[in-house]
Write a structure and sequence with these properties.
about 150 residues; mainly alpha; 2 domains; 7 helices; globular
């Protein structure tokens, strides 16, 4: 399990990154440097306080409130920022993701799916990217009883 200090340590360069983060660093070596510079300017306790003040929970995989759908994932995020009710992930859910450069017909179809699925009580998950994701999420939100969820990388 990851301790609450390890994600900051990865950013600061004092802990080894996960294989996934190491692969990202290998593609763009300036990214590790940028993370280290940012970590030197920020105290992780201040970041946590600011998140909590904004109504955002800051969780690590060791936290028992992290949903099993995420904690069981081999590439579970090192830090999870949560706003809202994680319990919606226990309901029937569907991910609607697609191209950012969607056609009008594609956006309309995604919007219709988002709305109809939300009306049927299905939790619509998206990445909130422009295009298909945004269209599905926006129309899911138009349903008064909807409980859509977003996962943003």
């Amino acid at each position: 399990m990851i301790s609450s200090h390890e994600p900051y340590g990865v950013a600061a360069g004092t802990h080894l990154p996960s294989p996934a983060i190491a692969a990202v660093f290998a593609k763009d070596c300036s990214l590790a440097y940028a993370w280290q510079q940012s970590a030197r300017r920020r105290d992780p306790r201040d970041c946590r306080k600011a998140s909590v003040a904004a109504g955002v929970q800051v969780l690590t995989p060791a936290d028992p409130s992290v949903p099993p759908q995420l904690s069981a994932d081999p590439v579970c995020p090192a830090v999870l920022f949560v706003r809202g009710n994680l319990g919606v992930l226990d309901a029937r859910r569907v991910g609607i993701v697609g191209t950012r450069n969607a056609t009008q017909a594609g956006r309309a179809t995604a919007a219709r799916f988002g709305c109809e699925l939300a009306e049927a009580g299905v939790v619509v998950l998206s990445g909130l990217a422009r295009g298909i994701d945004a269209a599905a999420h926006r129309d899911a939100l138009s349903c008064l009883t909807a409980t859509p969820a977003a996962v943003v990388g």
